[in-house]
Amino acid sequence: EHGAVRAVDLLTSGELANGERSSLTRRWLAGPWLDRAHHEIDQAAALGVSFVCPGSSAWPTQLDDLQERSPLVLRVKGSLELRQAVARSVAVVGARAATRYGVWVAEDVSAQLANEGWCVVSGGAVGIDAASHRGALAVNGPTIAVSAAGVDLPVPPSNDALFSRLYDDGAVVSEVPIGAHPNRQRFLVRNRVIAALTPLVVVVEAALRSGALSTAREADAMGRRLCAVPGPTT
Question: What pTM was estimated for this model as a whole?
């Protein structure tokens, strides 16, 4: 209704202290929200993390398709300029418990896309996600991981080497604070950002109940083009 900046002003001034919003005002005044925000700004400066907000020149406007579900801010760590990179991008997603064949397909498809100048967007997780990023990086192509954790935390920790490459040659993006650990809810809400950032989503492998299919549903609902690997491509 008001936007983030005006909402903070109203809450801090107590102007919303009537009716059903009074409980929100009390929660706001009781918590160190602004102190946390200022602390994160200091952390970001030390870690080389930038903030991208709606309305700024770096904001990918396709995220506005999420309407009231659009992120309030994105944290970005890496060498890519986010808006420019995702202007020509494809999401490649799939199962964590991937088959060797699925990993090969994800790497191969992503390498071909990146080689032709497409930015490969995925979730930075193990399995198909990691294979997608590796495929793009193998040909020195652009790739972005949309993380369910703070941009400073490789998820899982075994992806440390991959995230180091992403910081140097790609980017890691997240809407959750620096240092925040992932949980099931954060993985699910992260998927809508992957779907909104790109005009096309490719599902390589996915279980019937999986995050990859939630990304596919989000993409389909927004009118994005949706593709799937049908089985053996050889």
Answer: 0.91
